[in-house]
Amino acid sequence: MPAPTSPRRSIPVSTVVETDVLIVGSGPAGASAALALSTYGVPNIVVTRYAGLADTPRAHITNQRTMEVLRDLGVEQDVVAQATPQHLMGNTTFCTSLAGEELGRVRSWGNDPLVQAAHELASPTRMCDMPQHLMEPVLVNAAVARGTRLRFETEYLSHSQDADGVTATVRDRLRGDTYEIRAKYLIGADGGRSKVAADAGLPMGGQMGVAGSINIVFEADLTRYTAHRPSTLYWVLAPGATVGGIGAGLVRCVRPWTEWLIVWGYDVTAGAPDLTTEYAEEIVRGLVGDDRIPVTVKSSSAWTVNEMYAERYSNGRVFCAGDAVHRHPPSNGLGSNTSIQDAYNLAWKLKLVLDGTAHPRLLDSYTAERAPVGRQIVTRANQSIRETAPVFEALDGLSPQTPEQLWANIAARKDTGEAAEKQRAALREAIAFKVYEFNAHGVDLNQRYASDAIVPDGTPDPGFARDPELHHQPSSRPGARLPHAWITSGTRTLSTLDTVAQGRFTLLTGIGGEAWVRAAEAQELEIATVVIGPGQEYEDPYGDWARLSEISDAGALLVRPDGFVAFRHASAAPDAGELLADALRRILGPA
């Protein structure tokens, strides 16, 4: 006799899924937002309309500031293990084809000896080349392991918001049905055609579609033409290379020296060409210059060069990040870096607002701090395209002419005589000027925030002693990233950046700063304290911190969870408790 069964009970199914933060998009911005939020313990859901993560290399340059972010979020070594290291990135080469004549090189991405020293002085991290199809899994896997709920094939359709939250309607592309996700905040990280940004009505400046480009991903063993001059980028000056695109033909190394991506331009007014395999192979062979090498085209796609930036990054409870708010060509390698840094800036603020530590007005600082950065990098990337023209001008290669005439102009630089000598000098100067694209260390690290989440110390801004796009200038001024210096703790050597961030505020002081330590410990907000000096938990054996801190031993720096200085007092203060409490009220707002 069969055992009796319990009566089947109907389980009520809610049509609304709830979370604290909904993130639309799983690219660098969305994935890093999820990783940071989950690291901080904030419930979040990521939805993406695609069936998987990035399947092409796309973004790749990963600069020192981004590596610092990844270091703080605990995935730096996962990236380093898969990335092309810095020393293989930097012989940026200008040529007529990989197998053709070389016109010159630029030591790039921190590989110039002087720039390399500046990189080592600036950060505990090293930049690298980490293609997007490898970066996204690192970010997403870590986020999911820490609590992010991820939904593929889930398309964002619309949202509405009220005083308490945001309701987003999404469609399951597998089943075809729609449902709602209720969140306290929504992050639109859905790329350069962001529907979230459009629905939120974020005002944009600039324009889309200023030029046409094609990406061609292919496999070929190009060791004989590249291993002796290892680089991420090989620029090809060939007939047609100035039409659309990013200034010249580009052969980009994805994985040394067998996986590659070509960027080639087209006339955007005429529309994209038919991207047949035959067409792609013709472009590849033209830029490689050796028809004997076997080539396998993996994919090709058309895209447009954009010069657009959002003037505001949020509307109510909806925030946008990454390409949704800054749309530009890949020049300077700024795209994924800025996207990850957007998310990092926003995540800690959301965490403090959600747990009641900060007033929602803290979130206003996101636009105030990140929109100027977004506008700067859009302008810089497009300017870098325009700065390629002088290379062609030096070869008289901009005026309409036959391919034979261009090759004759290139050959003329080898002649004797005054005209050829001037041509060689002009070519060297034009190539050297590309340092603004390939070694813009200041663009990477010189961010200075001005917002209500920064408390000015009343000192005049000294500005920059050298070109702020090319050269990093460390500063402990409120609004600057905390300077890096190597310090010790017992037998450990660590960076000052390793003592801060980690999702909390940190107060740094020295011998004589006991009042600041007591003030930090008296706050309701958790504030880590770091005392640097002889006989303290942290010591400064090289004297680097003493030179960079710009405060006396008894002074104090209050550093935000993103590693930026929020408050500075240069000396001891009998009213340290009042000063620190007032600074926190100004940053976090009323309880």
Automatic annotation (TrEMBL):
Gene3D superfamilies: 3.40.30.120, D-Amino Acid Oxidase, subunit A, domain 2, FAD/NAD(P)-binding domain
UniProt keyword DNA-binding present: no
Spans traversing the lipid bilayer: none
Gene Ontology terms for molecular function: FAD binding; oxidoreductase activity, acting on paired donors, with incorporation or reduction of molecular oxygen, NAD(P)H as one donor, and incorporation of one atom of oxygen
Keyword flag Oxidoreductase: yes
Keyword line: FAD, Flavoprotein, Monooxygenase, Oxidoreductase
FAD-binding domain boundaries: 18-381
InterPro entries for this protein: FAD-bd, FAD/NAD-bd_sf, RIFMO-like
Region (Disordered): 453-483
Protein name: Monooxygenase FAD-binding
Organism: Streptomyces viridochromogenes (strain DSM 40736 / JCM 4977 / BCRC 1201 / Tue 494)
Highest classification ranks of the organism: Bacteria, Bacillati, Actinomycetota, Actinomycetes, Kitasatosporales
